[in-house]
Amino acid sequence: MAIELGRIGIWRAATQTNGEFAAEVEKLGYGALWLGGSPGGDLKIVEELLDATDHLAVATGIVNIWSDSAESIAKAFHRINDKHPDRFLLGIGAGHPEATQQYTKPYGALVEYLDALDAAGVAKEARALAALGPKVVKLSGDRSAGAHPYLVTPEHTRSAREILGAGPLLAPEQKVVFDTDPERARVPGRQSVSFYLKLSNYTANLRKLGFTDEDLAGEGSDRLVDALALHGDAATIAAGVRAHLDAGADHVNIQVLGEDPWPAYRALAAELI
Length: 273
Known about the structure:
alpha/beta; TIM Barrel; two-stranded parallel sheet; 12 helices; globular
């Protein structure tokens, strides 16, 4: 089994996608469409997107392990994979403690969930883990295709690659704002980034990356927002995306912020694909 993601993909909330959206993403040459917002249940949206495309890979970024049992997700996975073999990457993760009462032992819960996916026949190569800290990054390489870090910089990518070694997938998300005016671009950038500054797993990781309490205060410093939500013209943003690839990423999934993502998708496709 080999799921081909290409080097560049799109990250988009599952509720903001449909078959028409996926078909256009495929036409532009992107290799994968990552579905945010914890899509779960029967994963019908994954099937819909794959039905509408010929070769685009679809990945969940991520299914929350507290929301759906491994057995039910495995059943949905097999239904989809039987219909569209080697095009669906099942990304799973433990979310964050502020949103989940059961969060007490996330590492152990992830291991148990992976054990249940093994028992249900979901191949290691067909799944990936949301991973920020070194322990879960290592687990992602040992028990899945690899890691899908979210809200990270190329410095995290470099560190994650050192932990994973050669071979396992490393597919970070990168937010971007297609706007050359810094003040204007920071509005959607800060709106997106500030949400995660209330979540302890993300702030702990950002501190490890060298950001200070001052950077993390309130809605985030300009330095923090500029690092996590790249802004500029297509060439400038493309250079920031390539920084992840140069640091060891196999694939970068781009999250375009703002009301209309299509101008950015088209311009970045010309630069990166």
